[in-house]
Design a protein that fits this description.
The protein is of the alpha+beta class. About 35% of the residues lie in helices and about 20% in strands.
């Protein structure tokens, strides 16, 4: 089963409400049975809520909301030297990679320079 993040504000609020109910019941269970709740479980669920879909070289990719170009390159394990990035047909200068935030449905083209002759 693949979890799909909520798309609109209403869906996000519903998901957060369901999440709060889930945590409340898990915490009640943990207190009753004297078990600890894993912070990783909470973090994993929150990360699912705040994902966006972008298209990198025509392939869909889900990344964290409020990610920038540099975050994307790190996630793709792409080098930062000799790389050009265009978002929605506009080249993004290297100097603004840290400040340029990615938006849902951005079409991103990553080109890496190659040597040869």
């Amino acid at each position: 089963m693949r979890l799909v993040p909520p798309k609109g504000k209403v869906e996000k609020y519903i998901a957060i409400y369901i999440y709060n109910l889930f945590i409340k019941h898990i915490c009640s269970f943990c207190v009753y049975f004297q078990r600890n709740i894993s912070p990783l479980l909470v973090t994993a669920y929150l990360n699912i809520l705040y994902m966006i879909t972008i298209y990198v070289n025509d392939s869909p990719l889900q990344i964290q909301e409020k990610s920038n170009v540099l975050d994307l390159l790190k996630e793709l394990k792409s080098p930062t030297q000799g790389v050009a990035v265009a978002i929605d047909d506009a080249v993004v200068p290297t100097s603004s990679w840290e400040t340029h935030l990615l938006n849902p449905n951005n079409k991103i083209l990553i080109i890496q320079a190659a040597q040869g002759g």
